């Protein structure tokens, strides 16, 4: 391992010099001391991966150096040099925690082999520490992985929310981890000994959802042959997770709001109110603030829910987390399937980190699961293992089918070769965008002029610009309104 830092303690100048030379030639960083006392001083002041010390030294001897090392830095490995025939001291050194010993006289190659072995151990330890760090609380909470700066903010917020008892609104595209966050909040909250009840608001008709949430008395409606408790009641003292909360019909929004305000409700057909103590967590993929503006969602309910807002960024905006999650999933699936996969090939890593993941972490999960299940290599996952279709051009089959993942990978590949392997409509859009941009440039950003040139209405051009993310930075004074 290059960059290994070594302290060498030996009182014989010639020996010392030739050892330093040999080790530096391989790329190790070496410092040398000629007495045990000097060595001990150096190792107390500097971190070393390895200390190599002669056992017989004037003053503080090699065993003292070994003990001092293990005291100052238990992780630092020690290799001792013994004189021929002093086996006992060597064994004593091993008992004190030396990594190995080498007997004089020795060839430099022998020494380098031992150092190389230490290098491997140190590297392995560092890798384990790194992955431990990722799995440390700083980067994960309730199974949510993320080292990306925005995700760390999210994790902080989730941690705080878990400790409090206020309603939480979770926003994010499909597959970004909204339900995972809801679980984490409940599991780490003071309510975790009570139930977490989940309701998907988009799946049921208004009447069914009403009965589902609030329950009903026997005979409340045709078919209500017995009394039934609703989800709010079941979640008493626990948490109610309303998924796809934007889909709540207006009438039920009112009822939920009232329940939150009064902490009680009525079953359908019930005469007496029932008190409940429920913490509400809602999640949605849509822009709920906009839904409020458009009158589609009750403003007061929104305000109550929005006490704490957790917004999960799409995976393509936290690309530094892709491989962290991917590596974690690979090890997870691999051990679950009794495989011993070590990682992704460099090209597979490259493709994964460049892919846009419209389905976010859920899509990443599927891709990795496929890679682990279908991969034939025992050590690594390769690009072809990640593809959904056996006949995808990516895997060397025909060009009939390709999954989104391969499609992007291929497009990136062919782009670098000068051809864009995209659909006609994608190519048309690409051309349209670049043409609009060049016309806008020629007319110095004047959209009215550009619209005339392009044969579009001012509004149509505005829409296209919005779609292609062309900013209207040049809305100058000469422009008229929409
Ligand atoms: N940061 C993350 N670390 C690890 N796993 C994650 C992370 N985010 C999401 N996942 C996993 O991805 C999958 C999808 O997450 P989840 O079901 O919470 O998404 P969602 O936002 O609720 O999606 P939808 O809107 O489609 O319901 C789950 O298996 C979840 O465990
Ligand atoms: Mg969900």
TrEMBL record:
Phylogenetic placement of the source organism: Bacteria, Pseudomonadati, Nitrospirota, Nitrospiria, Nitrospirales
GO molecular function terms noted in the UniProt entry: ATP binding; sequence-specific DNA binding
Gene3D superfamilies tied to this protein: 1.10.8.60, 3.40.50.2300, Homeodomain-like (1.10.10.60), P-loop containing nucleotide triphosphate hydrolases (3.40.50.300)
Protein name in the entry: Fused response regulator of ato opeon, in two-component system with AtoS: response regulator sigma54 interaction protein
InterPro entries: AAA+_ATPase, AAA_lid_NorR, CheY-like_superfamily, Homeodomain-like_sf, HTH_Fis, P-loop_NTPase, Sig_transdc_resp-reg_receiver, Sigma_54_int
GO biological process, one term: regulation of DNA-templated transcription
PTM sites of type 4-aspartylphosphate: 54
Response regulatory domain location: 5-119
Sigma-54 factor interaction domain span: 144-373
Keywords from the UniProt entry: ATP-binding, Nucleotide-binding, Phosphoprotein, Transcription, Transcription regulation
């Amino acid at each position: 391992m290059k960059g290994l830092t070594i302290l060498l303690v030996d009182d014989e100048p010639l020996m010392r010099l030739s050892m330093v030379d040999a080790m530096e030639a391989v790329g190790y960083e070496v410092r040398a001391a000629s007495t045990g006392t000097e060595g001990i001083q150096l190792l107390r002041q500097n971190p070393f991966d390895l200390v190599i010390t002669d056992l017989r030294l004037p003053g503080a001897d090699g065993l003292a150096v070994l003990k001092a090392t293990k005291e100052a830095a238990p992780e630092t490995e020690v290799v001792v040099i013994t004189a021929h025939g002093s086996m006992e001291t060597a064994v004593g050194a091993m008992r004190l925690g030396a990594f190995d010993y080498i007997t004089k006289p020795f060839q430099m190659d022998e020494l380098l082999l031992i150092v190389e072995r230490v290098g491997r151990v140190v590297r392995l330890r560092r890798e384990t520490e790194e992955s431990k760090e990722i799995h440390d609380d700083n980067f994960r909470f309730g199974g949510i992985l993320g080292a990306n700066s925005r995700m760390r903010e999210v994790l902080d917020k989730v941690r705080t929310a878990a400790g409090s008892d206020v309603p939480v609104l979770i926003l994010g595209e499909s597959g970004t981890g909204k339900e995972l966050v809801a679980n984490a909040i409940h599991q780490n909250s003071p309510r975790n000994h009570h139930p977490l009840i989940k309701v998907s608001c988009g799946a049921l008709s208004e009447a069914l959802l009403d009965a589902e949430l609030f329950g009903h008395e026997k005979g409340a409606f045709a078919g209500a042959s017995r009394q039934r408790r609703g989800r709010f009641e079941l979640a008493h003292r626990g948490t109610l997770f309303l998924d796809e909360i934007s889909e709540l019909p207006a009438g039920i929004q009112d009822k939920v709001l009232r329940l939150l305000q009064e902490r009680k409700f009525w079953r359908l057909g019930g005469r007496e109110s029932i008190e409940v103590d429920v913490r509400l967590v809602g999640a949605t993929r849509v822009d709920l603030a906009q839904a409020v503006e458009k009158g589609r969602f009750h403003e007061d309910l929104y305000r109550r829910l929005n006490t704490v807002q957790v917004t999960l960024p799409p995976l393509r905006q936290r690309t530094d987390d892709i491989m962290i999650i991917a590596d974690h999933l690979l090890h997870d699936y691999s051990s679950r399937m009794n495989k011993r996969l070590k990682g992704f090939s460099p090209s597979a890593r490259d493709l994964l980190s460049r892919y846009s993941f419209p389905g976010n972490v859920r899509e990443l999960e599927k891709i990795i699961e496929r890679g682990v299940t279908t991969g034939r290599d025992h050590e690594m996952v390769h690009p072809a293992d990640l593809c959904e279709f056996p006949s995808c051009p990516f895997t060397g089959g025909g060009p009939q089918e390709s999954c989104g993942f391969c499609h992007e990978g291929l497009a990136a590949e062919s782009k670098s070769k000068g051809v864009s392997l995209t659909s006609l409509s994608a190519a048309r859009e690409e051309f349209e965008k670049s043409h609009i941009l060049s016309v806008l440039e020629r007319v110095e950003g004047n959209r009215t002029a550009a619209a005339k040139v392009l044969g579009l209405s001012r509004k149509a051009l505005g829409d296209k610009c919005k779609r292609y993310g062309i900013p209207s930075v040049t809305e100058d004074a000469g422009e008229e309104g929409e």
